[in-house]
Write a structure and sequence with these properties.
The chain is an alpha/beta fold. It has 13 helices and 25 strands. Strand 4 and strand 5 form a beta hairpin. Helix 1 runs parallel beside helix 2. The longest helix has 13 residues. The protein is globular and about 60 Å long. It binds shikimate-3-phosphate. Shikimate-3-phosphate binds next to helix 5.
Length: 441
């Protein structure tokens, strides 16, 4: 079931989770490839591209800026602009995609025209001062047209100058926005990260011949001035999204007797910290690396066997490497013995929903004793997971998917409402849920 108009689904308890899956392409990498391919000269051929609502919104935006694309079987072909983007007549609507809006803002800051970027109600409620500040320091004029520092974002592009910038929050989106703007600046642009974050932008740029220097937490690019770098189209294979594989990893790890294999999963070291947390909780996970990828990223098969888990404390710099998996850690915690405390995760308050609130509310509906903290949450595990209840997605894709995994262990069927948002990142999720043995209708 991947119909975008379907709004509710009922997931039934599943005592035996087992199966073998290949998850769809990485969302972060798919976004970055689309933008770089649109800048490049010639054709980029992408295999394993994530065909989801967020990626489609970005493809449409890049088409309005002069690139074109076609899906041909399993391949996506993007015809680039050779570096000459054209102004879009209307505002560019990035839908629900924070990555699309924030990275594109960086790319457009050095273009000789004005752009307006917008999105759906959720995206228009998320903080944008974090990109306005560095882009303005570089010389762009950025106006936040929404209330309280939110989108729509108007960018009057122009001449940019390299800066050294320390973002107030650990964010790969902010880092990537500044680095992409830095490509069109005079001089060197350096981002000093408060905590290291996913480095897909750096890896892709390096693979395309743009030197990126990383020294500890300092990441720098040398600008090419207003013409930007000369990039050439090439072939890519996008690894499976670790954050999508994470649902099956947790489903298996927390169900005694379960056995799941996930193939072709991206294993970027800044993305796979969930494996360490689950191992600390007592999970049995084997990683087998596959060296054939041309995605400039590690890739492999994960084999997970279920067992009894125990609660953990999670906090500090590792949070940045786990940020999209915290709803799932809360699910594992609900099934584990003892208490789990998640700290230093205030960023969850400004994701597609306030994820501290949306996770705790839904855990409580399922009978779990969970409490919000200003910067995280506490979960008391091993209570009975209540069936015959309904879950609210809060319009945030990761919430219904995480709660569907918990519903597999409930005492009865669980109805999930507002599930259209799942198409943002994982349209095949419900089919894959059935593939590991669940019944959902
Ligand atoms: C992303 C970075 C993260 C993550 C998001 C995708 C990216 O956001 O939560 O799903 O593609 O760079 P932040 O960088 O804002 O933490």
């Amino acid at each position: 079931m991947s119909a975008p108009d379907r709004q509710s689904i009922t997931v039934f308890p599943c005592p035996r989770v087992a199966g073998s899956l290949t998850v769809p392409g990485d969302k972060s990498i798919s976004h970055r490839i689309v933008m770089l391919a649109a800048l490049a000269a010639g054709t980029t051929v992408v295999r394993g591209f994530l065909r989801s609502a967020d990626c489609q919104a970005l493809l449409d935006a890049m088409s309005r800026l002069g690139a074109s694309y076609v899906f041909d079987g399993d391949e996506l072909r993007i015809h680039g602009t050779g570096g000459t983007l054209r102004a879009a007549a209307e505002p560019l609507d990035l839908g629900n995609s924070g990555t699309g809006l924030r990275l594109l803002a960086g790319l457009l800051a050095g273009q000789p025209f004005t752009s307006e970027l917008t999105g759906d109600a959720s995206l228009r409620s998320r903080p944008m001062r974090r990109i306005e500040d560095p882009l303005a320091r570089m010389g762009a004029r950025v106006e936040l047209l929404g209330e309280g520092g939110c989108a729509p974002v108007r960018i009057v592009g122009g001449r940019l100058y390299g800066i050294e910038y320390t973002p107030p929050v650990a964010s790969a989106q902010v880092k990537s926005c500044v680095l992409l703007a830095g490509l069109f600046a005079e001089g060197v642009t350096t981002v000093v990260e408060p905590t290291p974050t996913r480095d897909h932008t750096e890896r892709l740029l390096t693979a395309m011949g743009v030197p990126v220097r990383t020294e500890g937490t300092r990441v720098s690019v040398s600008g090419y001035g207003s013409r930007g770098p000369r990039l050439a189209g090439r072939d890519w294979v996008v690894p499976g999204d670790f954050s999508s594989a994470a649902f099956w990893i947790v489903a298996a790890a927390a169900t005694p007797g379960a056995r799941v294999e996930v193939h072709g999963v991206g294993l970027n070291p800044r993305r796979d910290a969930l494996l360490g947390v689950l191992t600390r909780m007592g999970a049995s996970i084997k990683v087998e690396e596959d060296r054939r990828s041309n995605a400039c990223e590690r890739l492999g098969t994960l084999r997970v066997e279920g067992g009894a888990l125990t609660g953990v404390e999670v906090g500090g710099p590792v949070i940045a490497d786990l940020i999209d998996e915290i709803p799932l850690i809360a699910v594992a915690a609900a099934l584990a013995r003892g208490r789990t405390v998640i700290r230093d995760a205030r960023e969850l308050r400004v994701k597609e929903s306030d994820r501290i609130h949306s996770v705790v509310d839904n855990l409580r509906r399922l009978g779990v004793n969970a409490e919000e903290r200003p910067d995280g949450l506490t979960v008391e595990g091993a209570a009975e997971i209540r069936g015959q209840v309904s879950i609210d997605s809060y319009g945030d894709h990761r919430i219904p998917m995480a709660m569907a995994i918990l519903a597999l262990s409930a005492t009865g069927p669980v109805r999930l409402d507002g599930i259209g948002c799942v198409n943002k990142s994982y349209p095949e999720f419900w089919d894959h849920l059935r593939k590991v043995g669940a019944y959902a209708e």
